[in-house]
Every structure is written in structure tokens, then in C-alpha cells.
Amino acid sequence: MSHDHDHHSHSHMHGLDFQQSNRRAFIVGIYLNMAFVIAEIVGGLIFNSMSLLTDAGHNLSDVASLFLSLLAFKMAARKSSAVYTYGFKKTTVLAALANAVILFIAIGILGFESFTRLLKPEKVQGGVIAWIAALGIVVNTITAFLFYGNRKKELNAKSAYLHLFADALISLGVVVTGIIIVYTGWYWLDAATGIIIMITILISAWGLLRDSFKMTIDAVPTGIELENIKKIILKVDHVKQVGHVHVWPLSTTENALTAHVALDEQLSFDEKLKVIAEIRHELMHENIHHSTIELQKFIE
User: What's the domain count of the chain?
Assistant: First the structure.
């Protein structure tokens, strides 16, 4: 029994460290990217650049995403109550879904403006565009790697990492666009780059929308296979049968399970409790934090 206690204590401390590092990453990311968004908006308006304004809109949506995620983490940390028995953990899933919706709205607005500007190109300062976008490469790369360590543990962290790393590549594209405009005078490239940015947002937003929607409707979390979970339970000593297995996300980091299990009928009540504890212990290794095991008779 002490082994279980140590395991859960370790997991709890690891979870606290993870949450704290995740929050710090989101806070730093918000400040850095907000400063860059302001620089892009000012530069885009002064120097009439659609690629800068489109990229600013993209980065602004990322700032909104980071803010929503941070807010969700703070809500998720609140204790459960008689009404909200699981607390507010599900807000992290809702934040991920809201982030995807924000990205799609940004696509519509910026895409329309880029296509309009492509039909009627306007003169832009390529050199200024390149310098401001170069700053974006630095800001987005630094911010992306703040989430590198947590990207496989939590959906919002993964979303932030992928978006910010993609932003760095987009900024690189804007730099190249600015340099080409300086030497060729091809002003239409500014709007064309805006359209390319829009397509990039669409690709990244679709994956986030799909994953967050699945979590919102309590689908089996990505990375967990129901048949594999059944096999793990059946491998525990004295387990004869497993059925009615359901797995769903409580948040972007925690999952829950219910299952009906048939045990050896010769076991005493205390022995059955020990088997259930062992099942829960094994499921913890599969990223299932809350397990409800119901006993049933073996069905031939």
C-alpha cells in the first residue's frame, strides 16, 4: 500500500511542477508576442504592408489563445464543489476549442483582405517589412521553445508550440518577401504572402479544432486505445473479465475511466479491494488519473 502512496505523491508533485512551468511559459509568451504584435501593426499601417498586418492578426490570435489557455489553467486549479464535483478542469478543453474558433475567424478576415489587395497591389517598403519580420523570427522561436518540454503532455502547450514555431517560419517567409520586393518591385508578393500565411493558419487550426472538439464531446483521448486498456486490466491477477469500458478527458491533461470487472469469486472482500487498487495503479501509467471500477459476476 505504501508503494501506491509514494507513486501518487510523486505524480502529484510532478503535476504541480508541470502546471507551474506551463503557466510561466504562457505568461512570458503573452508579453513577448503582444510586444511584437504592436510592432507589426504599427509597421504594417505606416508602411502599408498586408503581409505584416496579416501576420500581426495571426500573432494576435496566438496571444488570445495563450491568454485563454492561461485563464483556463487558473480556473482548472480551483477546488471542486458540491455543484462542480470535478472542479473547472474542463475549461482547459473549452479554451483549446475557443482558440481554434478564433483562428478560423482570423482566417476569414485576413484572407478576404489579402485577396482584395492581390487584385489591386499597393506600393510597400520591402526593407522595413524584412526587418520587422526578422524580429518575429527571434520572438516566435524563443516563445515556441518555452513550450517544448510540455508539448507532449498537454494539448494547449502542444498547440502553442506548433503555432509559435509555425509563426517563426512564416516570419522567415515574410523576410524573404521583403527582400524580393526591394530588388524586384513585385508589390503583389506582399498580398500573396498574406494568402500563404492564411493557408498555413488553416492547416494548423484544423488539427486543433478536431482534437479539441473530440475532447469536448468526451471522445477517447488521443494516445489512448480502448482495446489496449482492456488488455492491461485483464493482465492484473484475479481479473477474469472486463466490459463497459469508457474513457474520457477531464481536462487537457487528466483522463477518467469507468469499467465493469469480474474477479475471482474465491477472493475475500479485502482481497478484491487490493485487486481494484492494482488496476488503478496500472491505469495511472496509461495517463488515466480517475478510475471507477464496478464489480460484476463472470458472464459465460
Answer: 2
Instruction: Determine the Cα angle at 278 with ends 276 and 283, to 5°.
Output: 95
Confidence of residue 300 (pLDDT cuts 50, 70, 90): low
* Of residues 251, 252, 249, 245, the one with CA closest to residue 219: 249
Cα within 13 Å of Cα(202), Cβ side: 11
- Residue 108: inside a domain: yes
**CA atoms in the 13 A half-sphere facing the CB of 246:** 10
> Is the model more confident about 37 or about 197?
37
Rounded distance, CA 214 to CA 76, Å? 19
CB contact at 8 A, 92 and 252: yes
Under 8 Å between Cβ of 236 and 275: yes
Sign of CA dihedral 265, 266, 272, 274: negative
**Structural domain contains residue 245:** yes
Helices (H), the chain: 2-46, 50-76, 91-119, 126-146, 155-184, 188-216, 226-234, 269-284
Residues 119 and 208 in one domain: yes
Q: Is 200 inside any structural domain? A: yes
Task: Output the pLDDT for position 155.
Answer: 66
In angstroms, how far is CA 54 from the centroid of its own chain?
23
pTM (2 d.p.): 0.65
Residue 206 lies in a domain: yes
CA–CA distance, 181 with 184 (Å, rounded to integer): 5
Supply the range of the domain harboring residue 37: 2-216
- pLDDT of the residue at 1: 38
Question: What are the Cα distances from residue 273, in Å, to 1, 214, 241, 270, 294?
Answer: 11, 33, 16, 5, 11
Do residues 248 and 220 make contact, with C-beta atoms less than 8 angstroms apart? yes
What is the grid cell recorded at 113?
483582405
**Quick one: average pLDDT of 42-54?**
81
